[in-house]
Amino acid sequence: MTKISDKLWNRAGEMRVPLTGAFELLPICNLNCKMCYVRKSPAEVEQLGGLIPAGQWLDWARQARDAGMLYPLLTGGEPFVRQDFFEIYAGMQEMGLQISINSNGTLITEEIAKWLGKHRPVRINITLYGGSEQTYENLCGNGDAFRRVHQSVEWLRQYGVPVKFNASITPENVHDLTSMMEFAKSVGSPIQVATYMFPPIRRDESMIGQNHRLSPEEAGHARVEADWLQSEPEWFMGQAARYRTFVPLEEALQQAKETGEPKAMGCRAGRCSFWLDWQGNIANCGMYPSVKFPMKNQSFADAWKQVVEQTEAVRFASVCTTCPNYRLCHPCIAMVYNETGILDGRPEYLCRMNAASAKYYQEYARQLPEYQHIAEQIPFEPAEGCSLEDIG
How many CB atoms within 10 Å of residue 39? Predict the structure, then answer.
């Protein structure tokens, strides 16, 4: 049965209504994670013009609401670094907006948790970076952050603030995968595990195809392990059955046509979602803004119209769309460009990561006695695209 929320999102996409938008309030963060795609120091921010004041963010939010926005996401950097965060948050809530927050969870005091309990967000998305102080120290440069996150979560639970976890998996914390998932289960919160780390070209344009991350084979294995640890057997068997159709890479490349129809962007970006970066530029996507321009001296309505028109003209990666594994890999324009530096490149990291996933889905599924009997009866269903809140 189709959910009402699904109908709302589908209708917004059809009508090109900006139902959701990320408000990237700052790139500053109190942690220094090795794979971060946006972080800058306060000194760097000042050199680039400083932070946009709260009043301007609220003006843009008001205009976006009038254009149809209902679900803003406040993100960063670390939003709670801003002294005027609560002014921005409260102002948006007074507009009737349903707000979500992305945070690393380390700056949330009991007083803040209590305030959020009285001014409840849809949820706060907390990214976990490890299962111990040592892991946080190795990856983020701050071992005490581990304790702070756990304490923050207890306070948020105490005051009734909904929490969802994201987990960004890297060489430093892959061994903590089980403990992070057990922690999420122990506090009754969902967790979404990301084993693919985007190359941080927003932070450093020279980082095409690079990041501090797992090898593609390790990322594929970790993805399957995460699914194994938290999924119902029936869902896992379905996923394994779908990946039985994965064509080995050499054969897939031979089957792929040399020329093909370039693909339009198929996600929500530029159709019912937008990204406002910390410098006041509106874009269709935060990870690769294929459409981006300053908001200065124009209304949100006019800017959104341009985003929609220009997004519809974007085409990319015919080399992927002709590949027999396309519906399994599900590459997006951000992945293709960040991995290759061009719009029609082959993102080899993704190819290898999905090849590893295909292998490990079969290995894990064989542990389920009923798998071989029903695997071939399960229909293929393409994966969902990412949402704003998946980016931690």
Answer: 19
